[in-house]
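Please, structure for the following, as tokens.
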Amino acid sequence: MAGSETPRPGWWRARDGNWYPPEALPEGWFIDADGGARQRQPVPPARSEPLPIRTPTYTTPPPRGPTSRRWRIAAAVAAILVIGAAAVIVTRSNGDDGVGDRAETGTGTGTPSSATLEASRLEPTTLPTTTLKIPAAPTQPPPTPPPPMCAASMSNPSPPQDAVVSVVVGSNQPNTPVQITVAYRTTTASFGATTDTAGGATTGFSVGKATVGFTVQVNVTVGQAACSTSFTTR
């Protein structure tokens, strides 16, 4: 059935500007308050909220600084000096003044005192520093976009002659030109459209006097993607 340029009660307006009866409305579509045809949006499934993740708290003891080590070294040196002084006093009491002087002062050509040797062992040693080089993290290449795809279907795959049918196109290419070619038994017809932001498009047309029982091939291209559908007039 061909469309009409004059609106009628209960009729809907297609993209070609003509008005069509409600029985020509594609499945899954409804007529809005302005008389236009709109596709029903699927209701997304309810999602459950994830449980909160608790992060454990760890207590780290304060680092032991170099001050405590210096105090231990100083205490050891003081103890050694006290022991050395006591040894000097004992030596002098035994009448060995020369040895006592050398042990106390640590000078002359004699053997260094034990206090001097212990103090030299307890001197802090500076260790060489080593710089660790951390390799940079590898750069991940950008993800490869999916190839262009499309799918087409007829609102009525078995329409009668002069019926108005619609080609429903879905793709992953938003805002892209659509070319539709209808191959009848003796002729072809072409229609153009553009996908919406979701990659979909719907185009209506009349099958006219298509040969009854002949399967009409409908070829669709959306950008670089190609798909097809068909209908058979009854």
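The radius of gyration is 48 Å. Confidence is low (pLDDT under 50) at residues 96-108.
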